[in-house]
Design brief:
By secondary structure, this protein is an alpha+beta fold. The chain is built from six helices and ten strands, in the order ααββαβββαββααβββ.
Length: 296
C-alpha cells in the first residue's frame, strides 16, 4: 500500500513540473505567431496603400520614362509632353507622304535644245533627243543623239572675227557636229516644294555619266587653211567621248515634266594632223520629258 502511494505521489509531482513547461511553450508559440501575423498585416496594408509592389512600381515607372509618357521630375502624367509628342508625330506623318509620281518601269522621251557654254570662239547651238528606261526609281539607262548645224561665219563670236579679220591670227577652232551617247543615270533626290496657295511642285535631281562618240569639223576658214592638204586630212574627225554631269526634272503630272541638263563632253582631237589636244565642251540644255506607259 505504501509503495502504491509513493508511486502515485511521484507521478503527480512529474505532472506538476511538466504542466508549466507545456504552458510556457504554448505561450511562446502564441507570441511568435502573433508577431508574424502583425508583420504580414503591415506588409499587406503597405501594398494596399501603394496599389502595387515596389518592384512592379519601379519597373512600370522606368518603362513610362523611356516612352516619354511621364515627367521624370514628379513621376506623374505630363500633358505637355504628350501634346509635344503628338505634334511631332503629326509633323512626321505630314512630311513623309506617299510619292505621287513614279518612274519605275517607265520610258522617258525628252526632246531638247542647248548650247555650248565654254567655247570662247564659237556659238554652237544643239538640238537633240534622249530616250531612257527607268530600271528602278533611282537608276536608269539613257541613249542620246544630238546635232549642231554648221552656219559658217555666223557661228563666230566677236573675238574670233577680230582675231581672224583684223589681227590675222588663226585660232584652233573645231565645231561640234554630231553627238551620240549612252548614259547611266542616278536619281538620289526627290522632293516637293509648296508655293503660294495649294500649289505643290514635285522635283527630281539626278546625276549622269557615260560614253559615246562625237563628230567634229575644223573651221578651215578661221584656221586660214582652206587649201592646206594636211589640214584637210583631219578636217572631219570622230572621237570617243566621255560625258558626265547632271540635271533636274520639274514634274507637272504623271506624264509631263520639264527637264534641265548640264553635260561635259571630253575627247581628244587631232589638230593639223600633227598635234593632239584635249577638248572639254560643256553643254547646257533644256527640254520636255514625256513618260510612258501610264503610271499604275
Amino acid at each position: 500500500m505504501r509503495n502504491h502511494i509513493t508511486l502515485a505521489a511521484l507521478l503527480l509531482g512529474g505532472l506538476a513540473f511538466s504542466a508549466p513547461a507545456f504552458a510556457q511553450d504554448d505561450d511562446d508559440d502564441t507570441e511568435f505567431s502573433d508577431d508574424s501575423e502583425e508583420s504580414e498585416e503591415s506588409e499587406d496594408a503597405l501594398e494596399e496603400i501603394l496599389g502595387e509592389s515596389r518592384e512592379e512600381s519601379v519597373g512600370s515607372e522606368q518603362d513610362a520614362l523611356r516612352r516619354g509618357d511621364i515627367d521624370d521630375r514628379i513621376g506623374v502624367q505630363d500633358e505637355t509632353i504628350v501634346e509635344d509628342r503628338t505634334e511631332q508625330t503629326r509633323r512626321v506623318i505630314k512630311t513623309l507622304q506617299r510619292k505621287s509620281f513614279l518612274k519605275l518601269g517607265r520610258f522617258e522621251a525628252s526632246p531638247n535644245i542647248g548650247f555650248v557654254t565654254n567655247d570662247p570662239f564659237l556659238n554652237r547651238y544643239i538640238g537633240g533627243a534622249r530616250l531612257g528606261y527607268h530600271v528602278t526609281e533611282i537608276f536608269a539607262i539613257e541613249l542620246e543623239a544630238a546635232y549642231s548645224p554648221d552656219l559658217g561665219e555666223a557661228d563666230w563670236k566677236p573675238l574670233t572675227k577680230q582675231l581672224v579679220r583684223e589681227n590675222h591670227v588663226s585660232p584652233d577652232i573645231s565645231k561640234l557636229m554630231l553627238i551620240s551617247n549612252a548614259t547611266f543615270q542616278f536619281s538620289p533626290i526627290y522632293g516637293k516644294v509648296a508655293l503660294r496657295g495649294n500649289n505643290i511642285i514635285t522635283f527630281d535631281i539626278f546625276g549622269a555619266f557615260g560614253m559615246g562618240i562625237t563628230r567634229t569639223k575644223d573651221d578651215l576658214d578661221a584656221l586660214q587653211a582652206e587649201n592646206d592638204p594636211i589640214a584637210q586630212k583631219t578636217e572631219v574627225q570622230i572621237q570617243p567621248t566621255t560625258n558626265f554631269g547632271g540635271g533636274a526634272r520639274i514634274i507637272f503630272n504623271d506624264t509631263v515634266a520639264i527637264r534641265v541638263d548640264g553635260r561635259s563632253l571630253v575627247y581628244i582631237e587631232t589638230v593639223n594632223s600633227t598635234t593632239l589636244e584635249m577638248k572639254n565642251n560643256f553643254i547646257l540644255s533644256g527640254g520636255v520629258s514625256f513618260f510612258f506607259p501610264q503610271m499604275d
